[in-house]
Amino acid sequence: MNFVSVEFFALLGMTLFLLLVVHHRLHNIILLTASYIFYGWWNWRYLPLIIGLSIIDYVCGLAMVDRRNNERKAILVVALSANLLILSYFKYIDLVISSGNSIIAWLNMSIALPLQNVLLPIAISFHTFQSMSYAIDVYRGRTKPVRNLIDYQLFVSLFPMLVAGPIERAAHLLPQVQSVRTIRQHQIAAGLTLILLGFFKKVVIADNLAPIVDSAFNDKTGGGLAIIIATYAFALQIYSGFSGYTDIARGTASLLGFDLIENFRRPYFAVNPGDFWRRWHISLSTWLRDYLYVPLGGNRHGHLRTYFALGLTMVLGGLWHGASWTFVLWGVFHGALLICHRLLFKRRVPSHQGSDDLGLTPARVLKAAIFFQFTCIGWLIFRAQGFDNLHDILVRLGRLDGWTDVSTLNVGLVAICAVTMFCIDAWHAIRFRVFIPLWFKLAALLLMIVAIIVLAPENMNRFIYFQF
To answer: What residues make up the domain containing 419?
Structure first.
């Protein structure tokens, strides 16, 4: 079931109606049922998989209570192994087999293992990461194990965040699941505004940029300028599409009485690699920091250990996005950026930098513009469909012919979308510091509605992060 569908709004409307008319003790059962309907709409055969994983983590959490440390560690290993084995099989088995076949062919051996062609369960990456964070937090004593199975299943399966996050932590979401929720007027207003903004980003910006990106990256005859324009377009497409999904998810959750964490904080305002990862896909970057980078040693054991932890964390973060070596290369690229920045600038970057958006001095604007180019190089790697496609793209970039073979309309559309996203981000940065008249807010909302109706393409794409 897609957010941009009649079925989704029917499910949301029915859920809201039931929440209004039944006793609050039944609310979590209603929400869990709606979540499983939402997930099962994609492929009902995978419902037992996520239900089974949630039961394993729930039981392991309870089993850690009043145990000795070595016993708790063994139980944690069971929980993590179950999640990682399921994730690895469904997501990476064909990558392992195809890579093995390539090595066998290089050794001039005639053996070839058949690919499994396993259908990837949607949301498996987000679901397993949220489950693993709960198990680790219980083991560390930062979260008390949940006694009610329904509460835990709702925590890992709440349908607004189920498919593409944000990846919630137990300390933030579980108390909301376990408490009696009263939906306030401001939550409804904020939720509807976020949903509308998310649809605008997805339908008007991301979906209209998609043809430019697809044609340039799939067409082997276009020149270098077409690739450059398409790379900028993809940077806008993936940001507007993914942040648009997050807006709809957070808005829907707000209508249901939940507050999901912010997942984006104006990432293209970033001035360096660390600043970017404090702004982009925040729930994933903080997950990688807390559950991978810090356990690997973080910055506590000298520079070499820090660089190793940074590099490995980003490589695994790249691999998390999909079973392709280009995602690994993308992780290597961002890991190299983080390491090089630390080597060049020894002083520690202030942790609050990711929230300081209003210091638009000429120096900061220049730094953000320069680092955005590095971000786009990463997106070019990310978008490539394998190393052969990446090689073709790089060859085309180096060609001198075809630089004029770019539609002026495409360039104008990318520029308009860039200005629009900049205005949206600037609005988020100043909305609590500058008085905005009510009539202006209403006019902006009306303009978004008109734009969605008029500019929505006939064939809308899936949310871009669903594939991960």
So the answer is: 187-272+349-467
How far, in whole angstroms, is CA 204 from its chain's centroid?
Answer: 20
**pTM beyond cutoff 0.85:** yes
pLDDT digits (tens, 9 = 90+) for 241-267: 999 999 999 999 999 999 999 999 999
Amino acid (one-letter) located at 458: E
pLDDT of 351 over the 60 cut = no
Residues 137 and 31 in one domain: yes
Domain count for the chain: 2
Looking at the fold, whether 176 and 194 belong to one and the same domain comes out as no
- State how far the alpha carbon of 356 is from the alpha carbons of 167, 337, 349, 368, 374, in Å: 24, 21, 12, 13, 21
Which residues are designated catalytic?
A: 321
From 177, 271, 207, select the one nearest 3 (Cα to Cα): 207
Write down how long the chain is. 468
Q: What is the pLDDT of residues 179-206, one digit of tens each?
A: 988 888 888 888 999 999 999 999 999 9
